[in-house]
From TrEMBL:
Encoding gene per record: nnr
Annotated positions binding K(+): N56, D116, S152
Keywords: ATP-binding, Isomerase, Lyase, Metal-binding, Multifunctional enzyme, NAD, NADP, Nucleotide-binding, Potassium
Cofactor binding note of this UniProt entry: Binds 1 potassium ion per subunit.
InterPro entries, sorted: Carbohydrate_kinase_pred_CS, CARKD, Nnr, Ribokinase-like, YjeF_N_dom, YjeF_N_dom_sf
Name listed for the protein in its UniProt record: Bifunctional NAD(P)H-hydrate repair enzyme
Organism: Calidithermus roseus
Database matches in HAMAP family: NADHX_dehydratase, NADHX_epimerase
Cofactor entry: Mg(2+); K(+)
Amino acid sequence: MRLFTSQRMRQADATAVGLGFPSLLLMEAAGRAVAEWVLERFPGRPVAVLCGRGNNGGDGLVAARHLMLAGARVRVFAAEGHSGDAAQMQRALQAHALEPRPLEQWQPQPGEVIVDALFGTGLNRRLEGSWAELVGRINASSCPVVAVDLPSGLPFEPHVRAHSTLVLAALKSEHLFYPWREACGRIVLAGIGMPERSLFQPDLPELLTPQAMAALLPRRSGDAHKGSVGRVLIAGGYANYTGAPALAALGAHRAGAGLVSVAYPAGLELHLPLESVRYPQEHWSPEGLSHVRAEAAAVGMGAGPQAEPAAQAVLSRRIPTVLDADALQPGIVESYARAGTPAVITPHPGEAARLLGSEAASIAASPLEAARTLAERFAGVTVVLKGGPTVLARQRGSGVELAVGTTGNPAMASGGMGDVLSGVIAALLAAGLEPWDAARLGVYLHGLSGDRRGQVGLLAHDLAEELPQARAALERGEVRAFWEWR
Ligand SMILES: NC(=O)C1=CN([C@@H]2O[C@H](COP(=O)(O)OP(=O)(O)OC[C@H]3O[C@@H](n4cnc5c(N)ncnc54)[C@H](O)[C@@H]3O)[C@@H](O)[C@H]2O)[C@H](O)CC1
Ligand SMILES: [K+]
């Protein structure tokens, strides 16, 4: 499943029409889905449908007809000047003796549900004047708003704040990225019958779905033993940063590693899980790690100035490695890329800025672009740019493949969460997954565990404790995506 932009959705729409699919059928399906959602979610409530002059308004006119036919009390207010499909839908409504009133005449009525069909993917600049004023009045009313496709005004200010958004054909960036996502409310995705070929756009970012992620789970055979399911080496820790490697170790254990070994500066007091094996290092060297049994590693958590020697020592093992925290320095990442050792980097925006020599704020503002740039800059390395949502990237052929996480929540904004993620991805690498699969599944499981324990005050080790149940639920097919299907 792919994440669209408004522009790419319009392209898909044009492709469908180019294939001979009548656009009027799409609008009919869209409006019908809106009506069905309103009737299901707000049974018996009167409805005001507010229609713009584009196709989003056309969807609203269809919704009004179906609401009326289902016996709902409907008032319709529409902008002047519909053309094309929307004009036909206006005539269809008028044939049922339902005459839209001018939009300016709309006043909110208590108890009424508002269908926001003012603007969808065709908005090309911020709303101003009477449009901005109308959006202000919608938001000030105490009526629940069902937005058609997008809350009108997004991705700019001002915009409608919706109770729910009935998304047409595919999710668009605004439905996933903050701050816009908060305006969408519940997200309900309606298929509307677009031909599959028009939606086939593999260069768009992949959305991580429960089905696709469940298929990646490493299977365990009946005769599994601790040496056959993946052993992990964690390398980190320095001065008073003793929690980070311990949390990474916990993440690896809870993600199913058969054995977790932790290498750290000798003399450091680490509160490791009882099950971890300790390898104190007098100084970091390939020899010091040569006898540690591991198929994958994670390095950098709390390593401070020791990150460089620790990363070079681990690199000598030539095993797939997660580079996190202090190991996220251009020189270290480049040395892994040059050596051709499979590497996954897991920066947050601040660390990504350090890698790219840019600003954290600009990275957080355009994470898809930033992840793409990281994948181009460090060719061959798998990028996990952490955030809400996390974005993944890797170079593939002459282009960059992108993916976007669909799990996780703001309760996960606390120290140590990233260390757990490193351990999880390392465990999946050790189990034999390719870096791209280990990174996507690791991000998904980590966020899913956070969602299952989603209260503020969640600690990183609470999240780690949830990993086995999250994984089992995913395996049993019990996990649902955050959007609902219609
Ligand atoms: N395949 C699908 O997903 C389908 C989507 N449908 C619906 O169509 C809209 C997109 O319709 P479109 O006509 O392209 O655009 P809008 O209705 O969003 O609005 C365009 C309208 O608004 C004008 N405009 C743009 N920006 C502004 C502004 N800032 N202020 C004032 N006016 C503005 C622009 O010039 C146009 O006149 C999509 O979201 C779905 O709801 C189909 O119905 C079914 C298939
Ligand atoms: K809308």
